[in-house]
Design a protein that fits this description.
Layout (H helix, E strand, L loop, with lengths): L1 H22 L7 E2 L7 E2 L3 H11 L8 H15 L5 E9 L2 E7 L3 E10 L2 E12 L1
Antiparallel strand pairs: 1-2, 3-4, 4-5, 5-6
Length: about 130
């Protein structure tokens, strides 16, 4: 009886794990144009980015140090331009989308934390004047 109960418990746990993996969001990122105009490519990908940004958490899933580090990674990427990170959205504790502005343009930045360090995974132009 005890062995059968263990097998049923294991099977139930396996089903739950498979369901969680199947429900995990797809975080593949659209292609983008080349600098200086990295528009989402194809153009319809803008909606994917917009929807993903809106659905991401506005509650920080990381520390104040994480926020500072991802802002620094974005600033270093846009140097020498001054960039303002206006909104940070958390897809996970190690994956963030940020709405950023420079003097003449707006972007979505995707940053990722690997081995304790934040870096820019991709970025997309939203508009330019």
């Amino acid at each position: 009886m005890h062995g059968r109960k263990s097998k049923i418990t294991f099977a139930a746990l396996l089903v739950v794990c498979v369901a969680l993996v199947a429900a995990a969001p797809d975080y593949t990122w659209p292609e983008r144009g080349t600098d200086p105009y990295p528009w989402p490519n194809p153009k319809e990908a803008s909606k994917i980015l917009y929807d993903r940004f809106l659905q991401a958490s506005t509650n920080a899933l990381g520390t104040a140090e994480d926020i500072k580090a991802l802002q620094q990674a974005i600033a270093a990427h846009k140097a020498p331009l001054r960039v303002e990170v206006r909104d940070v959205r958390w897809l996970s504790p190690s994956l963030v989308m940020a709405y950023t502005r420079t003097e003449f343009a707006a972007y979505y930045y995707v940053t990722e934390k690997k081995k304790g360090k934040w870096s820019v995974l991709s970025y997309y132009m939203l508009w330019v004047t």
